[in-house]
Structure to design on (224 residues):
């Protein structure tokens, strides 16, 4: 099975900061990588799919990049609404999906 | 829209059946998933089912205990959970997989608590 490793697990940042989260796959997943945002008590929300495609309605300050085994999620100018937990997820095969451990973005 | 039901408190070794009612999209055209989240923990994929229900896939920890199924006539997804363990305690989310892509929409979740 493909393992997904996210870093850091916690990130302290201020409004206006540029934030980058990294996700590494244990084997190549091409560009089959998604990013989700989750707030406490709520269901996750899709932000990015196919490594760099922005889901409809998601602000353009969110961007994704990478391929193979290394991926990043960047928030260009952190807003108050962005303090949440972020997860990467590989979908190289529908027979087994895997999520990263999550990155909590906290207020500095 | 996805609305889960069926969660609750169950004793170890017991069974529970989760349901998910789908609306506002073509249910029969999409793969569907169950994903769970233990209290204070991350997301864990549990199972997928393809459009006609003949392709079913599970995370190793639930194989032989959980069964995913669907009824396209009722626009509903199910998760039959048997031989439940304390470590199965979690919020269980029903999720829709976008055609050719990944999970793009989630239900609100239903809490399953396995405890004596």
């Amino acid at each position: 099975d493909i393992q997904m490793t996210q870093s850091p697990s916690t990130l302290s940042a201020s409004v206006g900061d540029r934030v980058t989260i990294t996700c590494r796959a244990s084997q190549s997943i091409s560009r089959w990588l998604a990013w989700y945002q989750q707030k406490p008590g709520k269901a996750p929300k899709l932000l990015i799919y196919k490594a760099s495609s922005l889901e409809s309605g998601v602000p353009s300050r969110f961007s994704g990049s990478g391929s193979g085994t290394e991926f990043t999620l960047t928030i260009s100018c952190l807003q108050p609404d962005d303090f949440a937990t972020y997860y990467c997820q590989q979908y190289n095969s529908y027979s087994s999906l895997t999520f990263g451990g999550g990155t909590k973005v906290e207020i500095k | 829209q996805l609305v889960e039901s069926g969660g609750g408190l169950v004793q170890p070794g017991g069974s529970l059946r989760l349901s998910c009612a789908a609306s506002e999209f073509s249910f029969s055209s999409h793969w569907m998933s169950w994903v769970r989240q233990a209290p204070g923990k991350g997301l864990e994929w549990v199972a997928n089912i393809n459009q006609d229900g003949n392709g079913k896939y599970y995370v190793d920890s639930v194989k032989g205990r959980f069964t995913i199924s669907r009824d396209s006539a009722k626009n509903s997804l199910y998760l039959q959970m048997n031989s439940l363990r304390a470590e199965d305690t979690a919020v269980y989310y029903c999720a829709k997989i976008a055609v050719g892509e990944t999970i793009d929409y989630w239900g609100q979740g239903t809490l399953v608590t396995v405890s004596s």
User: Anything to note?
Assistant: The two ends of chain B are 34 Å apart (CA to CA).
